[in-house]
Amino acid sequence: MMDDSTIVYAEAEAGTQTELINPNEIAALAKKPDNNKPPKDDERKYLWVIFASIVVLALFAAVILVGVQIHNHRQQQLAQEHARCESAMTELDKKAKQYEDLRSGDGAAAGAISDIQVADSGTVKLLDEQLKAQAPAATSCAVSSVDQYDARIQQIHDYEEWYDAHMRSLQEAVNGVNDSKQLKEVEEATATLDDTLREAQTTLDLTRGQVADEATWNRLSDLYTKAKQAEEGGKLDEITSVEQDIKTAIGDVNASRDKKIADDERKAREDAQKKAQAEADRRKAENQSNRDGDRNTNQNNGGNKENDRR
């Protein structure tokens, strides 16, 4: 009979022996320290594993933190670049509008002037070239990187320079056409004024002392002097205004001359009538005197004859 502490393990295969194992011995063996791996080494190993894990986690967290910071910094840079780009776009839009206003306003008005209306036809040709200039293509700040923003902002600045240059050249071309048109108008107005001045001089010469109202003649003479000064000044408004005034004054002088002629003729007729009437009255009186004298003579002769008969 076997002890309760003894367990019999039999192998299933034939030819093997039966081994008796005591559970107490197994427990004792489990408590017996392992001479090959001391417990302190396991603790160190576990500590190193924990430390390594912490380091890895810390590195991973640092990488994530750096990545987040880089991303935030990049987003901040992009926001700054976008704001800078939008500011540049605002200035570009302002200059583009100013250019278009000039082109469609004064530019279009000057462009309607033909080469026969100006003193220098080259100004019309130059303006036509400026009006046909191709403006820069539309652009925007729809980019995704700092480098692209830098390139786009540089492009915007280039466009601004284009508008600045063409605003100046277009304005100069517009001024050139307008000045040339005004110059021709001054030349034509001066030529017209010269003709009017010749007429005024002739009128002054022919009507000196021959007008009913000397004030009209003096006014024409003063306007003649003023017109000469206006010609030297070369101001279209003054030339045109004084030319019209001289024409009116010439008409006034001629009317005053005609009035004097009519007055003189009327006075001459009145004088002639007065002389004729005076002559008629004189002759009538003379005839009456002669008749009276004859009657007296006859009376005297009759008295003498009566005396002779006595």
TrEMBL record:
Transmembrane segments: 46-68
Region of interest called Disordered, as start-end residue ranges on this chain: 255-310
Keyword line: Membrane, Transmembrane, Transmembrane helix
Compositional bias annotation for Basic and acidic residues: 255-295
Protein name as catalogued: Erythrocyte binding protein
Source organism per UniProt: Bifidobacterium choerinum
